[in-house]
Amino acid sequence: MTPEDAIGVESMTRQDELHERLALVDARIAAACAACGRSKDDVRLLVVTKTFPASDVAALARLGCAQVGESRDQEARAKREELGALADRVRWHMIGQVQRNKARSVAAWADVVESVDRLALAEVLSTGAQAAGRSMDVLIQVSLEESTHDQASRGGCPPDEVTELADRILGLPALRLAGVMAVAPHPGDPDRAFARLAEVHAMVLGIAPQASTVSAGMSADLEAAIAHGATQVRIGGAILGNRTVLR
Ligand SMILES: *Cc1c(COP(=O)(O)O)cnc(C)c1O
């Protein structure tokens, strides 16, 4: 590294760094859309801020990011509180598994819950949202694991139970069913997984035409997800850097 480079690195603020990485991810999304003839406007970016400090959410909000994703109730709640009014400039998505005893708490801070995989959880979220005087968008998390053992351990509704769950969610007063979400199994073939998700989404649209969101694709596989119709990608590492805690 030359001394000039070192000066450049030192003076680069975290916000500059995030700005640069956002531009790179934006270019990847644009290229992936172009490659399959989709409009870039059809794919929204959710920046996954789990394990990173509230100051990063603040920087992202200032950079114009509209939504962030969190995976733990307590952590997300603390960040939202810490940011005060600034927190309301972004929509907060819960993307991690929700234990039933945390559902009421999640309903108090999350604008969207992407990880709804069973009716019991949806019911508590609806009650919690109602108690908080709000309504909430939810996505059904679809399990794309090949074995039922992995489905059970990683969360997600088995594909053949998704329409039944969708139908029941439509009957809950404080929830709006906005679409489906999935994580491609690792190891595994992301193309095959996201193709399956597209099939499941088509079935959901059959009973809930407004459920247009397909949340799929992370730092490593956003291109495959976009090729199979993702309308939202969830990107952590490629924007915020490596997580020291892996989850
Ligand atoms: C952590 C996480 C992401 C982001 O993953 P990266 O590989 O960091 O982009 C996306 N979706 C879910 C459900 C996650 O838990």
Provide structural commentary.
By secondary structure, the protein is α/β, with parallel strands linked by helices. It has helices spanning 3-11, 14-35, 54-62, 73-83, 103-109, 119-131, 148-154, 162-169, 190-207, 222-227, 237-240; strands at 44-48, 67-70, 91-94, 112-116, 136-141, 175-181, 213-215, 232-235. Helix 3 (54-62) crosses helix 4. The longest helix has 22 residues, at 14-35. The radius of gyration is 18 Å and the shape is globular. The site of pyridoxal-5'-phosphate has 14 residues, from strand 8 and helix 11.
Which features characterize this protein?
247 residues, alpha/beta, 8-stranded parallel β-sheet, 11 helices, 15% strand, globular, binds pyridoxal-5'-phosphate
Write the layout of secondary structure elements.
Layout: H1 3-11, H2 14-35, E1 44-48, H3 54-62, E2 67-70, H4 73-83, E3 91-94, H5 103-109, E4 112-116, H6 119-131, E5 136-141, H7 148-154, H8 162-169, E6 175-181, H9 190-207, E7 213-215, H10 222-227, E8 232-235, H11 237-240
Parallel strand pairs: 1-2, 1-8, 2-3, 3-4, 4-5, 5-6, 6-7
Bound molecules: pyridoxal-5'-phosphate.
